[in-house]
Structure to design on (399 residues):
């Protein structure tokens, strides 16, 4: 696979160790504020640019991990949260520092399985000792580099190229392995109160592009047009992808010999938690009276009166189980306020607005606590009795 998405690289370290200076060196231009005053960088700042001789990346400049005071602690918390979204970490050290701020960062990198490089800055003032190099190496650094004004940044670029995972800049296909060139793919896309005015939602756009990239024919219809289209044209699609909200209608309209799934289920596989969703979805039937369910909306949007995550899924789960269930909804990447052990089930949206790593880290606490996880599309298919049909296209691929 070629490079078709920008990897996220986080720059971490103490205040005034030169994080912003190094970002400017890599970019070849001044894109970060540089100051001799510690704490100039406050909240994490994202910047997309091209690293010469490497390619496009998103660099995240973070606040110093030795910040002080109540506000400083909040900045540190934001810095640590940013680790969830990155593919590679660069830890900026100076003056042979390897103490609590550095050790705490390294522990967070390892916890999230993020590879990291160490750059020892200000080598012209206080060069790194052999002991410092060995210490960082023993703690798992994928590389130790030295930097001063007279040292080229090319070794850093080469270390990034060598260390960053291939998954950071390659994107798996949504439907490419489910279809063949020339196939017709039918997309069922309701235009309702939740549809953005004048445009389509991101999963629909991504699927259209993926169909076209794989030399297939894309047909886009509202759910009200499906029956007449199939009757009038006689076209037999190789695959039908529906909005999860109209799964029951799509199941009735689409002949059983045609593969059917949903945009949300495509995203479930695309984002990489598919096996956990497959295991967790049937656990819906094990929910008990007054169990608490966590709904994770990984974006922020206008809440409609018949919102899918806040209204429809809770209603369908209560009806299917016959139980009085309690629901908490967390939007975006906000912190989950209750202990994860309070929940009997976690229902994750498709995650179209967050990275694969962010979604994995979002669900990791629940998975590690053996709490079942599912996603919108798979949960909806389950409660409407069409789960096996909805996952059949992927079951074929796994054989």
């Amino acid at each position: 696979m070629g490079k078709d998405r920008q990897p996220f690289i986080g720059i971490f370290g103490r205040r005034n160790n030169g994080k912003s200076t190094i970002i400017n060196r890599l970019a070849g231009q001044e894109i970060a504020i540089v100051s001799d005053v510690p704490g100039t960088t406050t909240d994490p700042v994202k910047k997309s640019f091209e690293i010469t001789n490497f390619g496009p990346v998103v660099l995240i400049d973070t606040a110093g991990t030795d910040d002080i005071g109540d506000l400083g602690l909040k900045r540190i918390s934001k810095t640590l949260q940013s680790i969830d979204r990155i593919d590679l970490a660069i830890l900026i050290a100076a003056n042979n520092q390897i103490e609590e701020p550095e050790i705490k960062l390294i522990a967070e990198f390892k916890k999230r399985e993020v590879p990291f490089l160490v750059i020892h800055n200000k080598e012209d003032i206080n060069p790194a000792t052999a002991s410092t190099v060995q210490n960082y190496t023993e703690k798992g650094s994928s590389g130790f580099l030295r930097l001063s004004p007279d040292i080229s940044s090319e070794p850093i670029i080469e270390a990034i190229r060598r260390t960053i995972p291939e998954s950071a800049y390659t994107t798996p296909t949504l439907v490419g392995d489910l279809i063949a060139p020339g196939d017709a793919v039918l997309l069922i896309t309701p235009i309702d109160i939740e549809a953005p005015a004048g445009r389509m939602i991101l999963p629909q756009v991504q699927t259209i592009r993926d169909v076209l990239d794989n030399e297939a024919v894309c047909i886009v219809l509202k759910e009200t047009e499906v029956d007449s289209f199939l009757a009038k044209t006689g076209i037999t699609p190789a695959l039908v992808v529906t909005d999860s909200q109209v799964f029951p209608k799509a199941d009735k309209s689409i002949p059983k010999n045609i593969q059917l799934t949903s945009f949300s289920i495509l995203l479930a596989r695309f984002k990489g938690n598919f096996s956990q969703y497959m295991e967790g979805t049937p656990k819906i039937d094990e929910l008990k009276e007054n169990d608490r369910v966590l709904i994770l909306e990984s974006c922020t949007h206008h809440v409609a009166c018949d919102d899918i995550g806040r209204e429809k899924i809770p209603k369908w789960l209560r009806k299917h189980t016959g139980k009085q269930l309690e629901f908490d909804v967390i939007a975006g990447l906000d912190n989950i306020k209750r202990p994860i052990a309070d929940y009997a089930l976690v229902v994750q949206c498709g995650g179209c607005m967050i990275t694969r790593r962010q979604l994995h880290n979002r669900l990791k606490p629940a998975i590690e606590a053996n709490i079942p996880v599912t996603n919108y599309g798979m949960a909806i298919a389950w409660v409407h009795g069409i789960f096996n049909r909805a996952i059949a296209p992927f079951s074929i691929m796994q054989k």
The chain is about 35% helix and 20% strand. The domain at 8-168 is CATH 3.40.50.300 (Rossmann fold). Confidence is low (pLDDT under 50) at residues 33-42, 301-305.
